[in-house]
Amino acid sequence: MIISHRYQFIFLHCRKAAGSSVCVSLARFLGPADLQISALPETLQEGISPTARVRYEAARQSGQLLSLARLAGRRPHGRALAQAIDHAYRPLLGRKPPHAPAVRVAAAFPREWASFYKFAIVRNPWDKTVSDYFWRVQRLGRPPSFATYVEALMAGHSLNGVVPLAFHDNWPMYTVNDQVVADEIVRFESLNDALPDVFQHLQLAWDGWLPRSKAGHRPVRCSNGDRRQAYRSFYTPELESQVGRLYQQEIDQFGYRF
Fold this sequence. Notes:
Elements: E1 2-4, E2 9-12, H1 19-27, E3 35-36, H2 40-45, H3 52-72, H4 74-93, H5 102-108, H6 110-115, E4 117-122, H7 125-137, H8 146-155, E5 175-176, E6 179-180, E7 184-187, H9 191-201, H10 237-246, H11 248-254
Parallel strand pairs: 2-4, 4-7
Antiparallel strand pairs: 1-2, 1-3, 5-6
Helix pairs in contact: 3-4, 8-10
């Protein structure tokens, strides 16, 4: 998530919908008082410095640890910075500040919420679930199958922390009382076509730079060569139905189809 006073926008960061990539791209333009909560390690990896506000608030939270992590390089420094900001904003935004529900963001930043331009990115839930699965199991020696993962998600079982039960659903991140509250919803499927208009609205020059943050963890299966439809090969009819029930509100709102 980003709250920019310089450009008066709030980016609501939905999970597994290119949010980290967009955060990093936007980070280049942020002003000293702007707050970036998402994708701080990825931002530092691209050589982009955090804002003065982020540095100040992270130092207040864990200054000594940050100083040591900075000496170890960009990657550990980025992780330490993200952890410090995460802990600083949990009391206001809940367990997962980068992906905070809209209702928590509105309560924590009422003035900005009332007047800033708010936007988010949504993704076909069947595709998003496959991406989320591979992100969650990428470091496991013996990962559960995709079917086991979906069934656990349906049943409310975390599989020892593998399944993100508390924050798997993006719907609360851009809705309040089941009503969309973002001024602009961009579809992941047409992201490159939509971003120039978003940047123009923010009065930023779109140069086409969108790093592939958090990419590369998912294998591609597509017999017809269409990578956009590769997620379908992971589904049985029953799994398709289960994911459809899990994310029915988002599917109905945006007309997604399997």
